[in-house]
Queue: 3 jobs
Job 1
Amino acid sequence: MEDNTLPWSLDKVESLISSLYEPRQPNAITEAQALLANFQSSPQAWILAHELLRRPDEKGKFFGALTIIVKLNRESSSLSEENAQELLEHLIGWYRDSFENYTGPLVPRKLSSALATFFLHFHQLWPSFVRHLSICLASWQYFDPLSLQSSLDVGRVLDTLDLNKLKAVLWVVTSIVEDVIRIDWNTANGVHLYNSVVREVTDAATLLFKGLAETQMAAVSNDSIKCLQSWIFFAQKASSRDSHVLALLRNLMPSVIESLISESRFGASAELLIDTLSNYPALLSEHHFNLLVNLFVSSWADERYSRLLEGDIEFESAQFGQLLLAFGEEKCQWLMQSEDPRSKVLLSMLCGLLGSDGYPVAENRVFVPAIEFWSTFTEVMSDLVTFDDISTIPWAESALLQVLEVVSVACRKITYPPAEEFSQWDSSDRVGFSDARKDVIDLLQSAYSLSGFQLVATFSNLVLTALNDCAWSQLETAAFCLAGLADCSKDDVRLDEALGSVFESSLFSHLSSPNTDITLRTRQTCLYLIEQYTEYFERNVSSLAPALRLLFSLLGNSSMAAPASRSILRLCSSCRHHLHAETNGFLDEYQTLAEQQRLDCISSERVLAAIASIAQAIPDAPRRYNACTRLIEFIQNDSARARELAQLPLGTKLPCFGQRCIENSADDSPGLHIALKTLRCLVGIGRGLQTPVESTIDLDASNPSEAEYDDQLERLHRQVVRIIMDIEDTFGRNSEVNELVCAVLRCGFSESEPGPFVLRFQDVTSYLTRHVGNIPRPGIFVSTACSFVSSLYAQGNPNKGTVYTTLLLWVIRLLQQSSDPEHDPELSQNSIDFACRLLSKSPTTLLTLQPTTAAEYFFLFTIQVLDGSEPLPKAAAAEFWATFITLKGGHPEASDAAEQAMGTLGPLLARSLARNIGGRASRSELDRLSEPIKRLVNCYPLAKEWLQSGLGHTSFPSSKVTEEQKALFVKKVVSLRGSRATNQVVRDFWLSARGSSFAYAS
């Protein structure tokens, strides 16, 4: 790399520039770019850039203009006013010459950017830049901008410019406005820049009016539209006091609307109007909207609209659709309520967009935005009227008919193409089509609030019609739409007649028959339909048995097993109180399927969970436990099989049915595969046996006593514990096994009544605390302990104090075995979370822990984590200390001990907090770290002294904060007494410690 103080020759620079455009190795190009960047940092770059811009070579001129931009951005403060004025004269001269000897836009565009950059840094030297540049280009000579006559008629000057020079002025004005928009206007320089641009708006409007009226050269008109768009962005950001800016721009909009009918100007005009309608509709007056409406109902629009509907894939056709939709979004309420015949025409056009040729997304790009518009339309209408009011409001009936027509058109468009065609689409089109179907469901759900159960009846009839016609693709679409309405109508008994016509039809027999040619997707969607209407089957039990027979008959079909088992689980869980008498029959059916190896792993898990949910509803405890025993026996058999398979050599073929099981990778033995399935099934059973959330709770019932754990239930507990311990003993080095074991334990934590998975607290404690030493992901077990202590507290277990102490000592032992707090972030986070939960439930457990060295270790550990960089453990540590600090006064039994501990820990905590807000923490951590600071100053009078000491400690990481700033920070924090405003004070101090440009004492 050459030093930038060495002399650079023009020839050398030109040679490097030329080398960038020659076929060379990437490293050679990178080296040339680095040398040129080095050149741009040299003092000689100013002079040589001038020379490059005088040369005929376009590449050299482009690089010369680029160098001027770089130098202005880096070194503008070193230029005197005289040098700056001279540079402006040269830039305008070069810019004029680039159009006179025009060979392409590359150099002129870069020079227009250079002039804009000059304005950013020296706007005070270039007042009235629109008229100054115009007169310089018109007269072929340079004038001093500071002595230009203000009475000069800019319109007359613009009239003397030929079209190329008019384009030149437009480019510079556009570049200046675009650059000024990016500047922060709240700074002193930003205010001056803003005012300088505002003063130009009248001249700019004159320039734009002339450019928009140009018909001979479309490029000039399009450049005018682009320039106007930059001014509109400026007006959006401008102060409301400068309303004349908006007024002048508003006067230009009719010209833009009129230019839509020009083929060569349509694209630019449509883009500007779409953006304005979407983001800044306040710019448009009723006159403008009226012009647009007239245009949309003209023969010109008819021709554009027809091309779009016929599947014209040109960008401008899609743009026309977007323009129509943008107008519709803005004038939605007018379209809905107006009696103007033009509104009906526009609504019809907007509806017709949904029916344009091609499958949505893959071939039709206007369908999704059209659906979004109609969803908005329907939601707005729902806000204005209710279902019961529609018949009394004149416009509402017409609007509802339009919505129903839209629903009909949209639903016809989401029928899947033939499978072979769909498989040839790329993945993004397939996903997009599926998302478009979901958008239609959103529309249906919005329409339901207006039309009521009429929609359900409509789609029920469509299902029946498709069944009768054996139109399987149409059946899939109708079933999909009907299923999508379930969330709106599942509890409405008025729908039972319509739904009954579907579920009591030949649908089930068609689906179960192996001889029909119903497509796989249609079968899957019909099962999904059954799954969505579980409430119907709860109310109509006679339909439940046929539905379940159908679902169980499909379990052996590898393509249907997943949706069938999912539907079985949903139905059995919802209808458990109607099915519990048939529990033994379900158990026998499962046994038969398992013995015949007709179930894959996922189906086994779901079906067992379904049977467990039925068993949970058995009112008689002995019968319920007998059913549970059979369920657990299935799991015991699988557990024994897994341990047997673990003894087989690697590479043994996996003895498991179906393709939906876990992949038998090189790291997975057959035994591990079955072990994971066993645990998942056990978790499924545990969750199925949980009391449903909606079940009634007997408030007068007492907590279960030890006597209620009869022999049968104790035997079930031993079996569950034996299963998880056997699997862990064999496969315990696998972290997924440990996760699933913990999931089994959690199944009983939320229960308030005895059950097979509500294990004795001694068993859970003993099981958790056996996990010490080198075990994979110990944080999983600590996380389970967090849930366990919460459940003990909720149940009011009289022995919970002993359990708390045992578990806390175990957690601390795990931390002591870890080499570093950041070695295992999961363990650190969950351990601190565990202690934090204990503080809120039993603060004395930590404060009176024996040996005391264990508690001391934990306190220092949390401070060490607070000093670390792992975000999740750090957040947990901040929450722990925020909770611990408030023990003073909040918990009488722990207040004195906490205050005594803080006498030692307070200064250490304050020192750690000081290091964090002194720049060590990340920005996203500041709010969490503010909490212990706020509580510290609110609870402890010595907090001020501790914080001052921490900020003055040698470990404070920043040298950018003065002692006065530190003292002011402490004063502010203490005076705020823990209020929310402390967060901003902490953020400001952190910024100053990081060295950001910030006046702290402001």
Job 2
Amino acid sequence: MRQYKSQNICINPIVFLNLSVNRPVTHTPLDLTQLGPGDLILTPNRRLSAWLQRDYDEIQRTRQRLKTWHALRTQPLDSWFLEQYNRLALVSNPALPRLLSPLQVRSLWQKHLTNVVAEPNHLEGLIQLCQQARTLICRWHLPSTDWNLGESEENRVFAAAHQQFLEDLREHHWIDPAGLPRLIHDRWGTDLCEAERVFLHGFNDLQEPQLTHLESALTAAGIEVCVSGQHRQQGHSGTLSFVDYGAQFKAALSWAVQQHFAWPLKRFAIVIPNLQHQRLHLEKLCADLVAAYPDRLADDWRHVINITAGQPLSSFSLCSHLLLMLKALGGNLRLAEWEVLLKSPFFSGGVQHFQMRDAFIVWLRSKNRAFLNWSIVHELWKVFSASNSPTEAEPFPLFKVSDRTLAQRGQTTSLRNWLVWLNRILAALGWLQERTLDSESYQVNQRVQETLQSLTELDAIMDPIRYAGFLNEVSQALKAVTFQPQTETAPIQVMGVLEAAAMNFDGLWVCECESRQWPQPVSANPLLPRSTLRRYGMPGSGPDRELEYARTILDGFAQAAPQVVFSWGEYEGDSQLLMSPLLEPIAPITDFTVGMDFVSQEERRFQLAGLLSVDAGDDLGTELQSQSSRGGSGVIQAQSLCPFKAYAEYRLGIRSEDNLQEGIKASDRGSLVHRVLESFWREITDYHGLAQLIARDNELQSVLNQILDGEMARFRQETYLQPEALYQLERERTFQSVYQWLRNAELTRAPFKVENIEKRQTVSLAGMELTLTVDRIDVLEDGSRAIIDYKTGIKNTASWLGPRPEEPQLPLYALINPEHTKGIYFGIIRPEKAEWQGLQDHNVQFTERAARTVKSPTAGWADQVGEWRQTLEQLALEYQQGVASVTPLNNQVCQYCHLSPVCRIKEQHRDRE
């Protein structure tokens, strides 16, 4: 939502104008050395007041050489109005209306907009616009005939909500902060403001009715009113262009730091109109500066450079973790969110039991648990922790919350009671009990507590709410607070336009001086009638106003420091930019050089990488010490696909995380089919039993349904699917796949007997023992063995052949009992396909219908088995020797591999090119 510059309009802060044509105003430059206890300075913002206070204190300490002095009376105008309200409240009769807090005002707008907006689902932006429109109405003293014209649908919606808002204020004897200045003016007393002189310092639009009324009231009370602004300095200013729009920010920071090192006691500023948008980029540039000059800049660059743009309070980790916990209490979280919450250092055990909680997350990911709620995580933690040693199975702090406390989530109660409930939750979870907060986190926590406590103000205007409403109020309140941790005064200030106006510096750099920025396009509040904006010359009334405002601000910047640089970019991407025509009278800078040039940390790493050879001098790792190896056939497959992959995964233990996916994972689907067929063949055992069962189709379906009932119960425990209907769909899919498989593939075979199912066996390759689990071994009529491996994906026998086979699993199985094994087969089991893929001895009668996909090796079965043994023993020998060359079998091996940052194959290809 665009923030309208409702108080920063086109009056030059240097060229002061009369506030009222009927009242003379003394134009006095602000000389801090001549101020006394009877002088009061009012400013448009808090930062300018703080800046003046620091300057004043420095003058008293250094120039006047005083040890004690009276405090400078300076404050923002809004704070001064609040102070006058509090003073009036003590003496006023009748009593003043009750002043609403910003949270209460927002809640009122939300209530009334909900009544008038047809689709009140996304009100936050509209609430902000309404509050801005209300502020403009009050500052410009607009009667209802000017803001309720019905010129547009937006204006009609606002007028209806605003009318209800005003009626609510009158009925309950309330006043909002926007209406406070008018109330103060109406109740003004002669002794209210204790000041002899009042300086209106740094205001841009001195003809604004709110300011003219203030001036009239002060003058009527016998108080002298002075208008002041920044000191005009006759220095050197120039424009500086950069081909790349983004390069000006880096140059500005380099310039400011260089100036600081040359004159450590002076103050320098960088003005960036779109500061909030550029904040992250600027922070990165500051980190790059520290990396480039570690001997001159401390690790914490914030002691030297202060970026004034605040951030939403909710964006700080302490606050975001708190909101995540509240969200978890109210519904499902994604697994990535649970990972953040369970490992959070702000809750008890987040650091101490980090490893176990990380293992729990890995376990949940393996179960494809993409979304979980509080109670499900609790139950799954019990299952997971049961498999860990008692010393590691720490009581989970998230579940120290009593059931009674959790049950109170269903209550409807006041915000005060909800906050008491939240404190009990946080105490049970060990919130901030095991972590010493640094300065920033401490300040964030203080502000969070203040913001939460302020929610109790809403009880006066809100009905009791349920937990969802409480969560919404907390979230909105924390997001609405713009927060910046307090730091020591930094010599380099990176500021927005409004913050820097009316200030003086020892050096100033103004970025983004493109024509699109100075002047900005007209941006009016869409809730107010355009005719009213034009009639009164209000913000957004037309391009002339924006042009004058831009000219005034740039003129002020040009005289704010002895040295001023106005920079602009010629290109942003493919878009050509132009310098603002308002800066054409200023001469360009032709001799600019950056004395502290630096490159980003990414560029530095890239440069260093170019000095290194990525070709490994040795493709050998350490030799395998043990004759047995974990991983089974996967070790040989990995060695065949890429030796480096085998070494990294099986020797170094570098494994990728399981990927979460919608619906069922292919591996879980395959496991279900395997288990169903395992149970089926344990019961049926041979071809004749199968034929008899298929002849009685009802009985076949009954047997399969009974098996599926048992396997689906286990499947539900181990595999998470959402929505629930997916379990039934997977059951039906598995039934159809297995049913078609038995009828169209198994029944077409020659008679056989099932000998082994899922049997673990050992094979020796080049002295290395591998443990294999074979899906199924059948005995054929001639006494030979057929080895079967079920697959629910698409496979073919080409993956078994060559010096580096892609799928060496079945060739390995053929070596278990080579004298009797006469064929190996993929069983392709899918709803649309039931097919055998295999190689066998030419004498074997496996199936007549599969002649196209089940063949005999050209060189003969015995020779093929011998070739497999030679190939697989060579791969096993390489693995034992530690061969780890980055030589993938094909591009597909690298496509989904997680090891590219380690093997650096992309860098090798780049260097070859």
Job 3
Amino acid sequence: MNAERPRAAGTRPGWGFIAGNTLALMAATAMASLTLWPVYQSIEFIVLVAATFALGAAIAIAGARLCWPAWLVALVTVAVYLLAGVPLAIPGRAIERILPSVDGLLELLAATALSWKQLVTIVLPVGAYQALLVPAFILVLLSTVIGLSAALRSRIAELALLAPIALFIAGIGLGPTAESSPIEGGLGLFVVLLFWLLWVHWQRRRTAVRLIAQQSRRTLESTGDRALAAARGLVSAAVIIALAIAVGTVAAIAVPVSEPRDVLRARVQQPFDPRDYPSPLSGFRGYLQPEQSERALLTVAGLPAGGRLRVATLDSYDGIVYSVGSDTVRSASGSFTRLPYRIDQGQVDGEPLTLRVTVDGYRGVWVPGAGALERIEFLGSSATARADSFYYNDNSTTAAVLGGLQEGDSYRSRSVLPRPAAELAGARPGTEVLSPISVIPDGITQALDGYVRAGDPPGVQLQSMLEGLRTTGYISHGVNADEPASRSGHGADRITQLFGDQPMLGDQEQYAVAAALMARKLGFPSRVVVGFVPASAGGGESVTVTGADISAWIEVQTAADGWISIDPNPAVREVPPKQPDEPTVVSRPQTVVPPPAPDAAAPGDLSPPESTVEDPPAPMHPLLAFLLAALTALGWTLLGLLILLAPFLAIIAAKHRRRRLRRAADSPADRISGGWRDFADTATDFRVPVPPSATRTELAEAVGGQRSLVLASVVDRALFSPDEPAHTDADAVWGSVGELRAAFRGTSSRRERVKALISVRSFGRYSGGASKRTVEGAGS
């Protein structure tokens, strides 16, 4: 069975060569496809990768065996894409899940161009949602066809390794921004590609040896020689893998992985921008107006007793309004993406919750819900339109629909309701990074100082702040005639007025904002939540939500429990009469004459107190600073050059040591033999074409010149003479070797001299076997 790789166009590769490259590319494709697993996480994706690789391999093998031109391979690939694309990438559109339908083909063609952006604007994983498997189908098919075709047909088979590498990089680019280290998959791909590369080189060497043996009609390698060569390759691979594992381990420990990855979905402009819509907290008082407070807004089934229905989560405050996301930073809560068939909420510790919501008088883009959403199903005649325009932010558990909800819309949601947090006294702040608060209302700091003690732990301070708000604050919406006046809004001036009034008077809009700002002052990441708290919720029965159920509360992030909901609002109770403003009393200060000091020190005895503040270092002279910066840059540059040149310096040092050991051998015969070997190595490094089985005279003839022929004759007589050669003979041989080495350098260009200096070809000349015996053995 012929296993030789093709050397010219039209040459058919052997089946052994085909099988080896196919298995190697299959393993590499499997490793590279691991970067796409966080995107899909479904059995359909596994089936797609396996089937697509089989189809792509069949195209490449057929093209290589039948000597198809490139255009025919491309045409067959397109045909396979159209025939297999629907069953594999859009299985829901296939007839009996096998044959493509007309609608499926149209969707496949559209997805070829549009699915890439859809994939990076949707919550992961996507499974087999709509046509989002099409990018994976395209990547695996092209990687397989191009990679295997290059391996089987190209003179530079190493180009085939670029195909799985490109697939690996594309998977990372399309992947999640969240913590998802590809080190394991990358290391596995590196190992597979390394062994593939070794196998390709072994095949090339085997083919070259076989061709030379056929031409010279002699055996060049024994079984032991081949085994030794394979063993050397495996040892080299093991060393490289060990180094790669060590470097990967150090990188995994040293490089932080908590930062979001800068991938495509982090750069793409999302279709839904929450900052294009007014803050839902701005219309808080509108729900409490008499015509809205009793109006049915939603009908909800499944909400537990005391349950809260979230409308939106707000985490950005500019002194005027609390809003969703921020326009000054890349806020995690401001990025809304499309929702596939489900979201994995396995990391949330809570109870499953299923809600059925029907929209009555509620209007707006925000979709009310509870807990961490796993999946949502819209019902009724508008289900498809609502599902296609639904966007979700998992960080803030806020959902939205482009165009807004309308009367008659209905949906069923399944989510995980987090368990209530433990005692706040032991809580410590979380690590979420929110947009900075640009304006702190007056009175916040003074009120906080009155609520908490400086030495208390953060959790105790948070608890004290909440108790202070609930104790000193009173609720009034200011919309009814029997309620004390209470201005709406939550800008900095309104929060300042809240803490300046006696008694403190406002409603959930003001207290939630004040509590969130004070929690931020205490070091806790915090945000405001707007939603409904139905008074009659409980037992899983249907409850009607009205405008009077509107409320606002806060969420703070703790190190142990993550985001937890807290109601900072005072209980509804009778508001005491407003206290009159206290007049400011101005009195003349009394002058107190201190008694004279009994032992006043003389002015000369006074010494200035020792300063506890270290003097700043004297500024460095500009010239010295420039020299220091230049030396630092030069040092780092030299270090980088040393690292880059280290392999070449090691080769030069190894050759110098090899020459020194040969010249310093104990016996004159060994020195003479070593001199000849040094001459042969020099010829090899200067790429003199010498057959592996050449004798000394044949090697000298290949080099050319009378001196090389004289050297070969002298070495043959010295080594085959019955008398032991003298050290003077060895010195003469080494002198001739030095002159011939100088002649090589003198007749070569600078580039050729450098290439010979760092060449490693001569290290493979004496690996044993026939080649070694011929060069070191008999003369001509």
